[in-house]
Amino acid sequence: MIHVGVDLHQRFCYCTAVKTSGEVIAQRSVVNEAHSLRQFLRSLPEKAQVVVEACGFWPAFRRAVESEAARVVMVHPQRVKAIASARLKNDRVDSATLAHLSRADLLPEAWMADEATRQLRLEVRLRVTLGRQRSRFKNLLQAVLHQEGFQKPVTDLFGKRGRQWLGQLSLSPAAQRVVDTYLPLIEVLNEKIAAEERRLEKLAADDERARWLQTIPGIGAYSAMVILAEIGDVGRFATKRSLASYAGLVPRVRESAGKRSYGGITRAGSETLRWIMLQVAQVAALHSPAARGYYERLKQKKRPQVAKVALARKLLCTAWSLLHHGVCYDDKIFAA
Known about the structure:
Blueprint: E1 2-8, E2 12-18, E3 24-31, H1 34-42, E4 48-53, H2 58-65, E5 71-75, H3 81-84, H4 91-103, E6 109-110, H5 115-147, H6 160-168, H7 173-205, H8 208-213, H9 221-231, H10 240-246, E7 251-256, E8 259-265, H11 271-287, H12 289-299, H13 304-325, H14 331-335
Parallel strand pairs: 1-4, 4-5
Antiparallel strand pairs: 1-2, 2-3, 5-6, 7-8
Helix pairs in contact: 1-2, 5-7, 5-9, 7-9, 9-11, 10-13, 11-12, 11-13, 12-13
């Protein structure tokens, strides 16, 4: 088989094709367009295994080349140590390294999400992004009020009473412009977020997996769809710990000469999955006796944030069990 390593960029790719023996048979820059990429692969003596590092462009790249390739493989950039730790780094060297790792069967493969999962991720990440933008605008507006010397007398500054209070303030001209600019933006985002949440609720109602997840304390339709989108095929996680590791919710472990030490969580993998599980843990600790009991017991020995992370990990492991076995949440089993 021929092995092709691809150093992928937005406008072009640098491709290196090698035989199983290691002989380089083609090496050049190719315009990052479907026609040019297919033409390069057709110029090779036989169909090749094409290897590319994970990046934002991989879905379009796969669609462009999969018809001409024997197989398309995506690898973890941080795990390709031959590239990550190399002193000499350029497109030619990186693409050649991928090709040689491919022929030696030493590729740290990454999962390539199927089209349905990618579409769902686009849906839920839109809702996540809109929510973060709204929070940002709210924080900026409240920072201006603090600069003007005002302390809000209500819990929700953007509710009915909060809006009435805002309308009565005597602000400086610049501060008033800030408030008048941010408030309409927040209103628009409220409408967009409400529309996205209605759509996600409909998707969750039609998905049996989401209904299982929503039996877990702290998980609603929105968070269930975020979890499903980030996990994708739960079958690719053989154990609960592997899923927790994917979310970056497991501690770093250093072991040498028989001595083992633990650090903070790795924060590797899906940042979105880690974020949503921490949100879920916060809600569960307030409303679920079993989750609150687990959290309080840990707080007696650990810092509150450490206990919250541990609860998020336990809830994610619970989600793995529910999805693997197709069952609903049981408070007694969780508390055991």
